[in-house]
Amino acid sequence: MEHRFDLLKNQGSAKSLRHLVAAGKATLESTVPPETQELVRIRVSQINSCAFCTDMHIKEALHAGEDAQRLHLVSVWRDANVFTEAERAALELAEQGTRIADAAGGITDDAWANAAKHYDEEQLAALAALIAVMNAFNRMNVIAGNPGGDYQVGQFR
Q: Which domain of life is it from (predicted)?
């Protein structure tokens, strides 16, 4: 796959990415477990077919000590017994929040109530922001034609 344009070298996209990174820092500082955040990033990226972000977040999760089996099962989390109920609730929010155009009404009340059993209001806000920011990153990468496979752990630190 060829880049349509380089997101980091293009002045306009680089400026936008800096703002997205700044927005994403709020979720990094939240009390949502880092493992859950990474699972959400991966699932959103899978749904959006963002090879670059899927590659990046799987590699970062492995580097942080996440179990490879769990990462292999993120796309089929409903049928896998390796995720906690809280992680399942976050993954459901991620899916419904990413597939807003495909779902009748976006996030269902049931999905929100289930997530609220596991996360407080601040954490729910952080998850909402994480899902929104990740969708924006995915869309920029997909539009730019940014391929997956070459990401190196810590590349953007």
A: Bacteria
